[in-house]
């Protein structure tokens, strides 16, 4: 549509560009939307370049970004003929003297401290380009469950604040793919965040009977996890490996319990230090925090297991208790087969409680045919082989004492052998329980490691 002459800027001969008087007429109309026919909405084209991701605050659910925002719209009162204006097709005017669309970011949650550009570019057809640098502090629903391998999807919704769809319409100035490529090309100072893609769609916001035209850009960013892998996962893995190796210490050793207590103390200090690096929200806890808690719980369980095994190996065996039958069936039978525990073969080198036939006793000879005073017949004494021997009268006190001592020694050795057998049974019960918990502990650690590695691979593939 060709505008009437009253709506076009005038130029003077010998001057470059429209005259000051004609521009001042436009400046006086600043409060009014620049449309000849107010029933026609002003179309505003929007594009931006994501220049930096300044910060992500998981606790307050806030994303801070820095954008190069560019707005285009048509000012129907800023048109002139270049042939009458010495060939001038573009001029710059102060933005404070012109009507500008009130485009805002709906997710904005802080004061706008961005530096405004004081000028806009206007070409002879009335199309205006307004560039400004915008620091946006926007609300975003941050998902931290997969931290530090998380990918965030935050929206930036641009639209007019006061003008409805009848007055101002918005549309993207460039295709979304080009906006995404430009942002990846110029993205600087991203720190731990990396841009994945920028997508968008246009829509209508309804509130009551009024409707606002909006355009939503989805900024997808992912975290670079190397900082947290080096500072969190690797130290925790070292401590867990040391705790796993501590199972190879003898379970009946007191040093094993003290070693585990020292390890738990060190892991607790590690958790206190890493609390400053872990994000925390009221909505949930990252899986890495659950991983650390489970690792600490496993360390405590391993310490309790050491205490229980020590009690089994020492307390029960010192009381000469027999291993209950259900314990032998359940632990030494089924659990030992499940964990592939084999009882080591032991050589039976028990003491030989056999009395020798040599010594101060001799076999009773045959009685003489004629003896005036025969010696009294002593009761027979049986040696270790069951052979009865008869003692001479001169050896009665010494041999009696020796036989009593041998009998006491045999009884003592039998008691020691019985105690050794009970201790051996309790020892194998403790070893089976120790091996079982060690394998469960190792299985859980491997499962958690597989989960972390899979999450890292998913992050890397995206």
TrEMBL record:
GO CC entries: postsynaptic membrane
Superkingdom, taxonomy of origin: Eukaryota
Annotated stretches, region: Disordered: 345-372
Cited Pfam families: Neur_chan_LBD (PF02931), Neur_chan_memb (PF02932)
Catalysis performed (reactions): Ca(2+)(in) = Ca(2+)(out); Na(+)(in) = Na(+)(out); K(+)(in) = K(+)(out)
Membrane-topology annotation of the record: Multi-pass membrane protein
Neurotransmitter-gated ion-channel transmembrane domain residues: 232-452
PANTHER family named in the record: NEUROTRANSMITTER GATED ION CHANNEL
NCBIfam families the UniProt entry points to: LIC
Protein name: 5-hydroxytryptamine receptor 3A-like
Organism the protein comes from: Aldrovandia affinis
Native organism taxonomy: Eukaryota, Metazoa, Chordata, Craniata, Vertebrata
